[in-house]
């Protein structure tokens, strides 16, 4: 459906997208995951034809977005991070305007607008001015604009930013529903959102692709190399962290104040083949460091995200 080959985007001396190559297959909900500044929005703006590229190639359903933009854009519905709404228009008026811009056949515009409003649950808002809608309903109007004409690919850039928890849940359910009939690309830096909604995840860091797989496979591949220990100790934890650092196979040690007063919670990533729990307990007893809790925990998407975006390489081979 989408083929990105060796894509590069530079702004002066800054490289926003760095030799990015990936493919998007039909029938999935894809998550573009990465910290702010990772190149997610820049990549999507290039894919949708809003930005040019310094180098590389993007094809949408076989059409080159740079050489055949009109044909390529017919297959895409796009909701930018800031929805392109005209506040002085009514909802239906705006969607009619969007349908005209998309060159949807006049005989089918009314049907498509009605169906888009029904899917996004804004039928009752049709006569209201967009300026008088809540942010959640404005986001729905933006989504209705994106799906007008039933494009094969729906691209959503940070679709839940600024919404309250209830609105976030509603938009996520709507995205799942869209995924039943469209290929959806969802850009986000919210890990729980990507984990809950997406079938497949691409992780970007500093303009580069550092991982691409299903959530389950990402977890499985990293778990094959490491596991996580969680500890709670009395005191500020400095001595405990220093002691942990002395164990071979222990890495990525972090500490934070515990929930209980005068305690510290520590996490330690340890090599899978090295079970250091017994030695840790003995060492803490000998060092007279009160160890209140020690457990082995499964790796999470958050762990993978931090590990992959803080290192140059991608998943372990």
Low-pLDDT stretches are 312-317
Query: Can you count the helices?
Result: 11
Largest sheet: 6 strands, mixed
Q: Roughly what percent helix?
A: 25-40%
Give a quick set of tags describing it.
single chain; four-stranded antiparallel β-sheet; 30% strand; 317 residues; alpha/beta; disordered C terminus; elongated
Describe this structure in words.
By secondary structure, the chain is α/β, with parallel strands linked by helices. It contains 11 helices and 14 strands. It has a 6-stranded mixed beta sheet with strand order 6-7-8-3-9-10, sandwiched between helices. A 4-stranded antiparallel beta sheet has the order 2-1-4-5. Strands 12-13-11-14 form a 4-stranded antiparallel beta sheet, with helices on one face. A hairpin with a 2-residue loop joins strand 9 (200-205) and strand 10 (208-214). Helix 3 (91-101) packs across helix 4 (106-119) and helix 4 crosses helix 5 (135-147). It is elongated, with a radius of gyration of 24 Å. It starts with a strand and ends in a 7-residue tail after the last helix.
